[in-house]
Amino acid sequence: MSGKAPAAIVMFVHGYGADGSDLIGLADQLAPLLPDALFLSPDAPGRMAHGGREWFPLTMRDPSEYKRGVEAAAPALDRYIDAELARYGLDDGRLALVGFSQGTMMSLQVAYRRSSPIAAVVGFSGLCAGADGAVNPAPTLLIHGTHDEVLPAGMTLQASQTLGEAGIPVEWHFRPGLGHGIDPDGLAMAGDHLATHLSKVTQR
Questions:
Q1: Which domain holds residue 108?
Q2: 94 assigned to some structural domain
Q3: DSSP per-residue letters across the chain
Q4: Is 150 exposed, middle or buried (0-12, 13-18, 19+ CB in 10 A)?
Q5: CA 174, 150, 167, 76 torsion-angle sign
Q6: Taking the CB of residue 160, how many other CB atoms lie within 10 A of it?
Q7: Which position has the higher pLDDT, 201 or 189?
Q8: Given this model, what pLDDT does residue 1 score?
Q9: Which pLDDT tens digit goes with each residue over 15-38?
Q10: Neighbours of 200 (CB within 10 A)
């Protein structure tokens, strides 16, 4: 983006054990499609012993910890979103969230519970902890590798069903042979999704 004020914010929400720097490099590939967007990638508040960050503690032994975790961590992400939107004089309709792994869990928790609808959501290699309390649907794209060794691809099918039953428009894609990561084709799909839905608000 040039020096002018942004027309929208695309916020990356990183995964467990990473930090904001893990995803911000994706901005270089998405920026040509979204020239008026500001890309942000905050660090999760939780610090881990090895130096990484976490939105909430994750043992992956108790499925209910996902729901408890996202509910506890959501206010911190909401506060960051509120502050950045206010800084640039933007509203929720100019926001898109792009999550990876635990960041997808957080994005799917926060996106539909904002006070008004956001523009779009992309979730890579994640899951949905539940759709209760989701009041403002946003167009959502979920992408998952078929060979994900951390969070099985079936979790995206479950997420799609949960979100769809809650009235949230959702599209999903599997990336053949991909593990727990983001590949060029998946990123291209994400770029198209973001460009389609952000253009509806930035061109008003």
A1: 8-202
A2: yes
A3: --SSPPSEEEEEE--TT--THHHHTHHHHHGGG-TTEEEE-PPPSEEPTTS-EESS---SS-THHHHHHHHHHHHHHHHHHHHHHHHTT--GGGEEEEEETHHHHHHHHHGGGSSS--SEEEEES------TT--S---EEEEEETT-SSS-THHHHHHHHHHHHTT--EEEEEETT--SS--HHHHHHHHHHHHHHHHHHHT-
A4: middle
A5: negative
A6: 18
A7: 189
A8: 53
A9: 999 999 999 999 999 999 999 999
A10: 13
pLDDT at 3: 62
Q: What is the CATH number of the domain that holds 22?
A: 3.40.50.1820
Is residue 93 assigned to a domain?
A: yes
Spatial CA neighbour of 1 closest among 147, 157, 137, 202: 202
Report the candidate in 103, 152, 110, 148 with the shortest Cα–Cα distance to residue 131.
Answer: 110
b/e map 176-188, b = 16+ CB within 10 Å: eebebebbeebbe
Q: Is residue 72 part of a domain?
A: yes
pLDDT in tens, 50-68: 889 999 998 877 778 999 9
Reported as half-sphere exposure (CB side, CA atoms, 13 A), residue 36 has a value of 14
1 occurs within a structural domain: no
Tally the domains of the chain.
Answer: 1
pTM (two decimals) = 0.95
Nearest to 188 by CA among 199, 173, 203: 173
Rounded Cα distance between 166 and 53, Å, is 31
